[in-house]
Specification:
Elements: E1 5-7, H1 12-22, E2 24-28, H2 33-49, E3 66-70, H3 72-75, H4 77-82, H5 87-96, E4 105-115, E5 142-148, E6 160-161, E7 180-181, E8 189-193, E9 198-199, E10 209-218, H6 227-230, H7 233-236, H8 241-246
C-alpha cells in the first residue's frame, strides 16, 4: 500500500477519507518559500545550540546526527501563527479526535527535527505508545503532522510509515515489504494517525532533512510536551485565543482548573 498524495486544493473530505483508510496522507503545496524561510531563521539559533549525539547508540530511541528543538510556541512566531491552527490540521483533528474527545483537543508535541547525514533508521513506533491502558488497535487519541521545510527523499531520511498498521493488533509485526517512505517536496505536510507505525528514515545523503512535527491529542490526556512550562506568561499573553486554547490553556470539563490568586 502506498501513501496517498493530494494537492492543497483537493476536497478536504477526500484527504481525510484517505487518512482514515491508510492511516497516513501527504498534502502538497500548503507552505510557501517565505514561510519556510521565516521558520528556519527563527529557529536557527536554537538549532545551532541543540545537542547532537555523535556516537550513536542503536538502543536509543532518537538516532544520532539529529537535532531536535521543542517549545515552538515560544520559539517561532511563524509556526505559532501559521501552522498550529492551520485549517487543514483543524479539519483532521475534528474528524479524528472529536469522537474520542468530545470537548476538544490540544497540541501534544511541537518540535523541529533536522536529520543529518549518517543518521540511522529510527525504530518503528506509534505516537500513542504512552497510552498502554488501551489495547491495540486503540481509539484515535493522537493525530500527527510533519511539515516539510526541505524536500523529504528516500535517501535523506524521509519518514518511514506502515500504511494500515493503525488497525493492527499488538501481535502483528511489519515486514520489510510493508514499510514505505514519505517522499514529498518542501512545503508539503504529512499527516498520520497516532496508531500508525512510523519512524525517521536513515540519511545516506549529504544534505539535512528538516521538518516541523506538530501532534495533537484529545483534551483529556496529559500532553507529551509540557506546554505550561514551555510557554512563559509573557508569551502566553501574546497568543490568540485560538492558539491558547489549542495549546491546552482551557479546562476540559473539570480537568485543568486553577486559582488565579495563587499565581
Amino acid at each position: 500500500m502506498s501513501i496517498p498524495k493530494y494537492a492543497a486544493d483537493s476536497p478536504k473530505g477526500e484527504i481525510t477519507a484517505a487518512l482514515e483508510d491508510c492511516g497516513c496522507v501527504v498534502v502538497t503545496g500548503l507552505m510557501d518559500t517565505g514561510l519556510r524561510q521565516s521558520m528556519t531563521e527563527e529557529l536557527a539559533p536554537h538549532m545551532a545550540a541543540a545537542r547532537v549525539i555523535e556516537d550513536d547508540d542503536p538502543e536509543e530511541f532518537y538516532p544520532g546526527q539529529t537535532r531536535r528543538v521543542t517549545a515552538l510556541v515560544t520559539r517561532s512566531a511563524s509556526v505559532t501563527d501559521h501552522l498550529i491552527a492551520h485549517p487543514m490540521s483543524r479539519e483532521v483533528c475534528e474528524r479524528f479526535l472529536l469522537p474520542s474527545g468530545e470537548f476538544g483537543y490540544q497540541l501534544h508535541v511541537s518540535a523541529a527535527l533536522e536529520v543529518g547525514p549518517g543518521a540511522r533508521t529510527q525504530v518503528l513506533h506509534r505516537e500513542e505508545d504512552s497510552f498502554t491502558f488501551f489495547p491495540l488497535p486503540r481509539p484515535n487519541l493522537i493525530v500527527a503532522s510533519m511539515w516539510a521545510i526541505t524536500d523529504f527523499r528516500s535517501d535523506n531520511g524521509g519518514t518511514l510509515l506502515v500504511p494500515g498498521s493503525h488497525r493492527w493488533t499488538e501481535d502483528r509485526v511489519a515486514t520489510k515489504e510493508e514499510i514505505v517512505q514519505a517522499e514529498m517536496p518542501a512545503g508539503s505536510v504529512l499527516y498520520w494517525l497516532g496508531g500508525l507505525l512510523h519512524g525517521a528514515g536513515a540519511n545516506t545523503a549529504g544534505d539535512r532533512r528538516y521538518g516541523v512535527i506538530l501532534t495533537y491529542s484529545v483534551g483529556w490526556v496529559r500532553q507529551e510536551e509540557n506546554q505550561y512550562l514551555n510557554i512563559p506568561a509573557e508569551r502566553l499573553a501574546e497568543l490568540s485565543p485560538e492558539v491558547k486554547q489549542m495549546a491546552g490553556f482551557k479546562m476540559y470539563r473539570a480537568l485543568g482548573f486553577h486559582d488565579p490568586s495563587a499565581s
